[in-house]
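Here is one chain, start to finish.
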Amino acid sequence: MTAPEERQPEPRQAGFHPAGPRRSPAPPERRGNDRRGGDRGRDGRGRDERAARPRGPATDPARQAAYDTIAAVHRDDAYANLVLPRLLRDAQLYGRDAAFATELTYGTLRVRGTLDAIIAAAAGRDMERIDPPARDALRLGAYQLLYTRVPAHAAVSSTVDLVRSVAPGAAGFANAVLREISGKRLDDWIAQLAPDEETDPVGYLALAHSHPEWIVRAFAEALGTDDRSDLIRLLIEDNEAPPVHLCARPGLADAVALADEVGGAPGAFSPYAVYLGQGSPGDLAAIHQGRAHVQDEGSQLVAAALAQGELSGSDSRWLDLCAGPGGKSALLGALAAQRGAELTAVEVSEHRSRLVSQAVQGLPVTVLTADGRTVGEDPQLPEGGFDRVLVDAPCTGLGSLRRRPESRWRRQPSDLSQLTRLQRELLTAGLRAARPGGLVAYVTCSPHRVETHVTVTESARRAGVPVDFVDARELLPAGMPGLGDGPTVQLWPHRHGTDAMFLAVLRRT
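Its structure:
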C-alpha cells in the first residue's frame, strides 16, 4: 500500500502506443534517438493539486503546461499525475500537443539527476545557486536538447522565452547554459561527468541512468547477481514509460473481450490483465461501469496469489489489512463474490477509506476505517477470525519508480527505519488475524531487501504464532520466468514487464 495518489494512472494521450513493447514513442518529430530514448515517462503521483499558473504567453501551451507541472512538483511537493491532467484540460491540449507536454513533464522529472549534473557543469555553478524558476526551465530545456529530437534552436529559444517570463534577469544566463549543453551529445556529457565505470560502477550507473546511488545499490543487492548487465537492463527499463494496465474484474469482465473493447491486448501473465491501447482509462465505459479498474499486472498477480492458495476448512472471511486506495480490494472482492466469501477492507485514513469504498462498489466488501495493527483489540478485527489475509504494506515504492518519476528523488534511506517498523507491526497483526491453517500474503511494491526478506523473516520469528512459508511460485501462473528459488517471489520490470512487486505467503499452523 502506498499513498492513494501514488496509484493514480499516468495520463495516456493519443500518439503513445502502450501495448506490445513497453517503449512509448513520442510524436515522430520529437522522438528520442539512440540511448536518449526511454526516458519519456507519463507516470507520477499526486498529493498536491496546486500548480503555478502561466505567467504570460512566454512559450507554447504544451511547454508551459510541462513547466508549470515541474515547478509545482519541486516548489509545492506536488504530484505530477494530478497536476498535469488539470493543466492540460485548462489549456485545452489534446492529441499530439498533450502527448508532447506529457513526455516533457515525466521525462524531465525522471532524469532530473542526470540533467542537474549536466546543467551544473555547463553553468559552472551548483544547482542550488540557480533560482528555482530558472532551474526548472533549464531542466525542461536540457531534456529537450539531450533526450528528444526537438531541434536545438527550438529547444533553446523556447526555453529562453520561458525563462524570460518566470525569471527575467536570468534569460541571458539560460541562453548561455543551453548553448553550452547543446554543444555535446548526451553520451559525451556522461563520459565527461560520470565516475569511472570500473572503479566506481555504482556512481557511474547512477549518473548514466539517473537513479540515486542508494537505489542502485538496493537494486543490485535485490537482484542477487554479479551480472552487471542485469542491473543495467533494470535501470534502463525503470526509465521507460510503462503502459497502462487494466484489471478485468472476475465475473464482471473477460480480459480477452475487454482487450477487444478498448483496443488493447491481453496481459502476458495475469488472466485479468489488459494492456490499454491509445486513450485515457478515465474515458472507458468498463471503468465507469465497474467492470474493470486500472492496476499494474504485478499487483494483480500478487493479490490473486492469495486467492489461489489451498485451504482446508472454512474459506468465507477474507481480509485486506492495508486496503487504500482499493485496487487489490476490488480484485479480491470480485474473486470473493465468485466463491460466496466476503472481504473486510481496512484503511487507516478516512480519505483513502472513501477511495476504497468507491473502488469496491457492488462487491461483497465491508470497508473499515481503522488501524490494521489493532487486530485482537477491534471487535471487527478478531484474532484468528480470517481465512485469507492480505498485508499490502506501506513501503518506499521503489518498485514503481517508472510510474512515479519524482519519487526517486524524494525518497531517502532514512525513510526505511520507520517504514520497516510499520511493516513488521502490520505483518505481525496479519498473522494474528489469520485462523490456524489460514493464509497471509505479504506484499510490497519495493524490492529493497530490508522491506522484503528482512521484514518477513523478523515478523515470522516474532509473531507469537507458528507459521510456515508457502512456495509463492506455485501460486503464480504456470510458465512465468525468472521467479527465483522461492519460497518468496520478486517481480521485475525488465523480466516481467510489471512493477517490482515482492510476494511472500505464510500459513498460520
